Amino acid sequence: MDARLRITALLTASTLALALGACGEDGGSAADPTPAGSTTSPTASTSPDETSQPSEEPTSDGSPSEDGGGSETTVPVYFVGDTPQGARLYREFRRVGGDPYVEAARLLTTGDALDADYRSLFPEGAFADVRAEDGAIVVEVADDGWSAPGELSRNGARLAVQQLVYTLQGVAQERLPVRVVDAAGEPAPLFGVTGDLVQAAPLEVLSLVSISGPEEGATVADTFTAGGVASSFEATVPWEVRDSSGKVVVDGFATAEGWMDKLYPWASEVDVSGLEPGTYTFVAMTDDPSGGEGGGPMVDSKTITVE
Question: Low complexity: which segments have biased composition (predicted)?
Answer without folding.
Answer: 29-52
